[in-house]
Every structure is written in structure tokens, then in C-alpha cells.
């Protein structure tokens, strides 16, 4: 490998050890590790954070290790976003893994080759490791393009793309920006799926960083690359997770596959609309909730006042 790997860790030595071993097998020349600090109200965090960081000391290949460890807990949103600011201030391109995202060995070569191929193509802003359907047109091509840059369970990008990132996404309040994204996606169902996320991130209703990354991509008319087979399994689902507490079989510990090399490149750069349509079919509840909230928002204070004073 010639590409740096960034590893995002916190307090889960069990999953971190598995992801670290996958990185160890790939032997990147540079490993940049970002860690959040223990939460003050969780006694186990001190030992668990320390045990997780100790795993990094096991680097036994020719590798420059750089660390960015926080002494205090910044939370998922601010720690990851500030950590990636640090990563992309050091390297121009990187492969990023969180402590619960276990990659297939071919994931690293796939990322590295496409980081090189699309280095100067500003239409492409991220390379994903996850395929929402395990396999998608895998007999005819190695990857496709899409407007839906989710989920970011193992991905790669460039500093040129990360410069568009803003954690507070204040631009979402601008109706012109919203319309620009809607026009770019050219699909109301897709737009509503993302708008639901952007609205919550803008209102600071969720401690996350990735929805803001989706906004950076779409507000700059960018696209994601999706592999033809699933290359990354999220092994962190469960009660200890920050967000991924679900135990749905569709997403938990999904199987990964190996990509064949050399890569089969798509004939053109148009987004795969068939993939988009299938993706949106699995998110109808989120879209429904967003629509209902949007309609009720003008009456929110009035309804809360009625409930408070029981004027009904």
C-alpha cells in the first residue's frame, strides 16, 4: 500500500482489535489514529479507552504512526469531524475506518486504485466500502456512481473534498441550497430521505458527523462511488454502540465479498438510478416522518402551548 489509513477509535477494544488486525494485514505506510476521551459519567470508559489505545502500540510493520487523542470527551460529532480535519491537514488522501467497520482485504486495493483514478475529478467526493444490497450488477462492473453517499462504514476521500465539510451546515437554512440539492438529485424520494437528516443535523438534534458529510457532498453536486459487492461489515451493532443499536438482520454483521482485479470500470459517470430507487424503498418510514414534521412545524408552538395549559 501507498495510501494512509485513518482509524477512529473510542472505548471498544473488542471491535477495535479486529479492525486493527485487518489494517495490520494491509500494512499501510502511515496510520493516523483519532481517539475520543472518556465520558465523565461512565466509569468504565477510562479503562476501556486506555485498552483501546493500547492496541495501536502493536504496529509491527514499517509504518509511521500519528495520534490525535483527546483527553476529554468531545462526542461522536465533534471528535470525528475535528479528527478528520487533522487527518486531511496531513495527507491529501486517506482510507478511513471506524473501530467497528471490518473490511474485506480487497477493500484497501479498491480504495487505493480509485483514489488515484479520481484524484482530480471534483465530481467524485467519496469512495464507499458498503453496498446496500451485498451485490449489485457485480458481473458487469466493479463499482457504480450514486447520489446517496451512505452509509460511511469504511470509505476513502481526498483533502480537496473534505474542505467542503462544515459541521454546523448553516447553509441548509438557505432555501436556494435546498432547491439546488433537490434539483441535483432529481428525485423527491431521495431528496426527502436526505432532507430529514439535514434538518436534524442543522437543528443539532443528533450527535453525528456523517450527515453533515452527506450535505457537503450533495450541496457541491458531488457523487459517491459504491462497490459492486459489499466490502465492509459493521460489527459494532448492539447496546454499546453510539448510534448503531439496531439488530436488524439486513444491516448487522453483513457478509463481505472480494472484488476481482483488475477493476471493471463503468462505461460512463452517470449515477445508477436503479440503485437509487431500490435504496429509497427501504426508507419509507423516515420519509413519512419528515413529511409529517414539516407539515406540523408551523403549528408546533401552538400545540405545545395547548398541551401545557390543557386548553382542550
TrEMBL record:
It comes from the Bacteria. Gene3D superfamilies: Spore Coat Polysaccharide Biosynthesis Protein SpsA, Chain A. InterPro entries: Nucleotide-diphossugar_trans. This is Glycosyltransferase family 2 protein. The lineage of its organism: Bacteria, Bacillati, Cyanobacteriota, Cyanophyceae, Nostocales.
Amino acid at each position: 500500500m501507498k495510501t494512509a489509513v485513518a482509524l477512529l477509535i473510542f472505548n471498544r477494544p473488542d471491535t477495535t482489535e479486529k479492525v486493527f488486525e485487518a489494517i495490520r494485514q494491509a500494512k499501510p505506510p502511515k496510520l493516523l489514529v483519532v481517539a475520543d476521551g472518556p465520558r465523565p459519567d461512565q466509569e468504565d470508559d477510562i479503562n476501556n479507552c486506555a485498552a483501546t489505545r493500547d492496541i495501536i502500540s502493536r504496529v509491527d510493520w514499517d509504518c509511521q504512526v500519528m495520534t490525535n487523542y483527546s483527553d476529554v470527551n468531545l462526542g461522536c460529532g465533534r471528535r470525528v469531524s475535528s479528527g478528520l480535519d487533522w487527518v486531511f491537514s496531513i495527507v491529501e488522501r486517506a482510507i478511513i475506518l471506524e473501530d467497528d467497520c471490518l473490511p474485506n482485504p480487497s477493500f484497501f486495493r479498491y480504495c487505493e486504485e480509485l483514489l488515484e483514478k479520481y484524484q482530480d475529478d471534483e465530481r467524485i467526493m467519496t469512495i464507499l466500502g458498503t453496498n446496500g444490497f451485498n451485490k449489485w450488477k457485480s458481473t458487469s462492473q466493479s463499482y457504480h456512481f450514486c447520489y446517496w453517499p451512505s452509509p460511511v462504514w469504511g470509505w476513502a476521500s481526498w483533502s480537496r473534498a473534505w474542505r467542503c465539510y462544515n459541521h454546523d451546515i448553516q447553509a441548509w437554512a438557505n432555501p436556494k441550497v435546498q432547491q439546488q440539492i433537490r434539483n441535483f438529485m432529481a428525485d423527491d424520494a431521495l431528496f426527502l430521505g436526505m432532507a430529514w437528516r439535514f434538518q436534524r443535523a442543522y437543528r443539532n438534534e443528533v450527535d453525528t458527523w456523517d450527515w453533515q458529510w452527506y450535505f457537503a457532498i450533495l450541496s457541491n453536486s458531488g457523487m459517491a462511488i459504491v462497490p459492486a459487492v459489499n466490502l465492509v461489515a459493521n460489527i459494532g451493532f448492539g447496546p454499546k454502540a453510539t448510534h448503531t443499536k439496531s439488530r436488524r438482520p439486513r444491516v448487522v454483521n453483513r457478509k463481505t465479498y472480494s472484488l476481482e482485479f483488475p477493476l471493471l470500470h463503468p462505461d460512463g459517470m452517470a449515477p445508477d438510478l436503479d440503485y437509487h430507487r431500490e435504496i429509497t424503498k427501504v426508507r419509507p418510514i423516515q420519509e413519512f416522518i419528515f413529511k409529517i414534521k414539516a407539515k406540523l412545524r408551523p403549528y408546533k408552538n401552538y400545540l405545545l402551548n395547548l398541551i401545557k395549559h390543557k386548553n382542550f
